[in-house]
Amino acid sequence: MLKLDIDLKMKERARNAAANIANSFDWLFGGYSSLAIERTVLRLLGVDGALEDGKPLPNVVVDHLQSIGAIDKGAAIPLANAMLAKKMDVMEVAQAVGRGELDLGKIPPQDPQEVFDVLNTLSNKMLEHIRGQRDKRSEMFAKYGPRRVPAIYVIVATGNIYEDAVQAKAAASEGADVIAVIRSTAQSLLDYVPFGATTVGFGGTYATQENFRIMRAALDEVSETQQRYISLTNYASGLCMPEIAAMGAIERLDLMLNDAMYGILFRDINPKRTLLDQYFSRMINAFAGIEIQTGEDNYLTTSDAIEKAYTVTASQLLNEQFALLSGVKPEKMGLGHAFEIDPEIEDSFSYELAHALLTRELFPDAPVKY
User: Fold this and answer.
1) Does this model's pTM top 0.90?
2) Which residue from 1, 22, 171, 187 has the least number of CB within 10 angstroms?
3) What pLDDT, on the 0 to 100 scale, is given for residue 2?
4) What pLDDT does 142 receive?
């Protein structure tokens, strides 16, 4: 196998620099939350559904807490406090808030230990479900064998999830190993996740939990006929990054595009917010056994492939360190590799080969998305 003669001290220096940068965000990761994280917490406690106008209940509850100045301590405790005081279940509380019948700020504080007991019961139920989905994936790979290397990655994006399912099954029948459902254009800038199955999109299909469920069921069906486990990926990025990660964990997605830098560079999303959301969403993916995928392949669409090739490697090093902070194992870090070959440039393929070898030698355990 071809190998590069890399200076080991330089490799160590680069990795240490990336670690120092990632660790410098401890103040953010340890001391702050975001609206998307609080909505994700509610989803992991079992809040789901939407009002008649389509507004998701997690948004309804978090917006309510924000409007009464009670969001600073998070959404979980007020929710559990109301469940105890009103003798309601989690969905009854969320629906009552949605109807305007319940003000979470006016409920007397309940016994703290009882509040935490409620939260432990709800969270353990969801964690057990996600653990079951993780085990199911392992069982499928044990039954059908590991994913082929290299894996064939095919995109579907009709806007209609039911048509996507038809196309995905056809792609799997023709040899696809991974199906990626491209999101509707600019969904990353929506500060809510649409509810239910969708049949209209713009350049893609909306990422919703029901759409995830439909596609997972379709791929499980074709996995049986093909005797290969067909993996499913979507996009946990943008303003709802952690919510989409949670939905993917609940519905057994296998891979998630999960990179804050895409939102910062291409969607002008607040860097502090999206890096914090990435930290939390990658913890969810780590627990669920979902392989994250990073977005370096986007960088060279707007920059010269040779002059800016170093940005890809720098981003890979940073993504590795941020992923480690969230508990993602190296074999679950699907790093993006990118190089646009220009036939007008002499030796352009040699440059690409060298760049690919650099990625593989720096990250020997990581799957690489090209």
Assistant:
1) yes
2) 1
3) 81
4) 98
Choose, from 206, 229, 262, 299, the residue flagged as catalytic.
262
Q: Could you tell me if residue 363 is inside a domain?
A: yes
169, 177, 297, 299: which one is catalytic?
297
- 368-369 β-sheet, strand order: 153-156, 178-181, 231-235, 255-257, 291-293, 333-336, 368-369
Domain that holds residue 6: 1-31+294-370
Integer Cα distance of 353 and 49 in angstroms: 49
Buried b (16+ CB within 10 A) or exposed e, 97-112: bbeeebebeebeebee
Q: Is residue 341 part of a domain?
A: yes
In degrees, to the nearest 5, what angle opens at C-alpha 357 toward C-alphas 360 and 9? 75
Q: Is 3 a catalytic residue?
A: no
- 342 in active site: no
Count structural domains, the chain: 1
The two three-digit tokens of residue 188, written as one number: 């990353």
Q: Three-state SS for 191?
A: coil
Cα separation, 196 vs 74, whole angstroms: 26
Q: Is the pLDDT of residue 340 over 90?
A: no
21 inside domain: yes
d(CA 244, CA 230): 20
pLDDT in tens, 297-332: 888 777 887 888 899 999 999 999 999 999 999 999
Q: How many CA atoms lie within 13 A of 167 on its CB side?
A: 16
The closest alpha carbon to 156, from 200, 223, 203, 197, belongs to: 203
Q: How far apart are CA 316 and CA 322, in angstroms?
A: 10
**Which tens digit of pLDDT belongs to each residue from 206-240?**
999 999 999 999 999 999 999 999 999 999 999 99
Does 367 map to a domain? yes
The residue among 227 and 341 whose pLDDT is bigger is: 227
Give the integer Cα–Cα distance in Å for 286 and 322: 12
Rounded Cα distance, 82 and 101, in Å:
12
Helix spans in the chain (H): 8-23, 26-31, 35-44, 57-67, 76-86, 90-98, 112-144, 161-173, 209-226, 241-250, 260-266, 271-288, 309-325, 348-362
